[in-house]
User: What shape does this take?
Amino acid sequence: MSSRLSGNEAVAYAMKQINPDVFGAFPITPSTDIPEYFAGFAANGEVNTEFVTVESEHSSMSVCIAAQAAGARAISATSSCGLALMYELLYVAASCRLPITLACVNRALSGPININADHSDSMGARDSGWIQIYAENNQEAYDNFIQAMPIGETTSVRLPVMSCMDGFITSHAVENIELLETETVRKFIGEYNPEHYLLKKENPLAVGPYDVSPYYMEHKVQEAEAMKAAKARILEVAAAFEKISGRRYGLFEEYRMEDAELAIVLIGSTAGTAKAAVDRLREHGVKAGLVKIRVFRPFPGEELARALSRTRAVAVMDKSEGFSANGGPVFAETRSALYDLKERPYLINIVYGLGGRDVKVEDIEKVFARLADIATTGATGPLYVHMGHRSKEETV
Amino acid sequence: MSTVYNLKKEAEKPPRLTGGHRLCAGCGAGIVVAGVLRALNPEDRAVVVNATSCLEVSTFMYPYTAYMDSYIHSAFENSAATCSGVEAAYNALKRRGKVDGTVKFITFAGDGGTYDIGFQSLSGAMERGHDMVYICYDNEAYMNTGIQRSSSTPRHTRTTTSPVGVVQPGKKQNKKDLTDILVAHNIPYVAQTAPVGKFRDLHTKSHKAIYTEGPCFLNVLAPCPRGWDYPMAKLAEITQLAVDTCVWPLFEVEEGVWRLSYEPKKKLPVVDFLRTQGRFRHMFQKGNDWMIEEAQAFVDRKWERLLVRTEA
Ligand SMILES: Cc1ncc(C[n+]2csc(CCOP(=O)(O)OP(=O)(O)O)c2C)c(N)n1
Ligand code: SF4
Ligand SMILES: [Mg+2]
Assistant: This one.
């Protein structure tokens, strides 16, 4: 079924089709539309979800944790400061092994306060034990959200899933989109029937213990194992999703990478811009390619290393500043993943698009120009630079 | 509920907070929790919610839970939101035919988790109108982290963050009127109680709170022998003194109607209460009479106001 929807509308529509048990709702730009649309569905009886309009994101995540522990399917949506306010509870959710689904509409973190897209919010939560899946466009935001529950809820995983899209660029732009039939979606995600839950009559359950050192580490190892197991499950769910939608997903997307010598690695909506740049360069005979990371947690290290093994120079582009003084988070992960390759490409990091700073096709072309230079001269120049800012002269 | 309360019969019910937890001997919190849970009708199930606190770390240390009912602890500041999440799940699952039977939702949090860090979460949950009970067991400080002051700690009290020094005589601020603030939420039932006598007041109010539809709040005095610095055998005596000096009056507010639950035959001077605890010891040093006078004046002022409000 074809439609024209904004990213937020598409995700809200997926939520409606899923008809979850509980929604913990709190507004924050640019994710606010999602609870607004959903409130409308609830008000019109199109869903029979408990729509809990809490007084903060801290409480929306607390409600989700408790509801999921009680045996319900719980969801929420947030951005930026809202995600930051949930920080402590993100860890609680993951360690209690509660497969909550959260739509994260990426927005820069304060301060200074800024409402536009970058990835500093979800990147700050990258080590919280949540699966993180990123969308390039509205279609992917819709598709990823529908795949989240079958991924998170499976017994070998049982982890919460953050389904991310770029604020405004994706959340507010209206695009053509293919929607699935509600029946198909419901069948795809199935019923949520956890083995243990608070409201189970036959067997009371205690959740969230004080965990002492003789046990804590075992629990963390189990959580780590679950995150590893999630990789296979994500691919399994993607394969099943392809059957119902005809759309193919993986851990990342390789765009014109077969013979690429120069490559860019990035996440999210900028992939669209980068694809246009790759196409233009290809017309001029430049062997350019793109890897768009879809799944950041679990990080597809080995697979990514394989995909980049035949390239000569790679620019990892981070849409968040990690303040590590050593590059952004995507760079750190990618660089580490490439370490085991016998022959590694040259690698640089470019931090871009902070607080919604625009990125054009020409900007991406400049990055490729620098990569071409590096590939011929072998001189990488500065390892880590910020693109498109006025405060200091930097190449690219 | 049978209208005649009989402690012996109540005590014969199988406990829902079992022994073997790790609270200090003589801890008021355990007595309060056991007492509240006893007010559940035996055929009803409950989900107990707990904020991080002495109670939490002592009653659910992996892999042992002291509760017969389902239980969830999530964090320090979110127990009310947590309870509302469980209640929301119950409503949703009930509507979809996935749970049956009566389940009650009862939250326990300390004064720190209620007056201070969990205040917003509590206010939100009460305003939203979840069918739940929130119980603050008030021991007037952050005990779990080693007796730090909270906004429930009375003025002049010695705690580790309001020490008695040369230029500072214990805590500088007065105790917050949390029960009043909860009344201002216009919820069906708010009460203040304590484990005194044969626990009749605690039992009756707990039962009412659990079985009144909508959000209900109980503030329960729960003395802490370690933080208050008194021999543990004195728990009952000190709790009774708190009530008889009107330091901790017993009252309830049902649908906005204030009712005094207990009027001491003879209102004892506050100093009788203060004298029993090391946390007030410095108030008895030479030159510190003014502290005792102030404490008395504060209690009197609040008591007078309560009498006016509860006048039939
Ligand atoms: C966000 C957060 N801040 C601080 C703490 C540390 N902490 C745990 S329990 C506690 C004090 C609890 O005081 P109260 O609620 O009065 O319960 P009590 O231990 O006195 O029974 C503190 C400060 C925490 N667990 N979480
Ligand atoms: S320190 Fe006080 S509140 Fe904590 S367990 Fe001991 S007696 Fe109870
Ligand atoms: Mg306390």
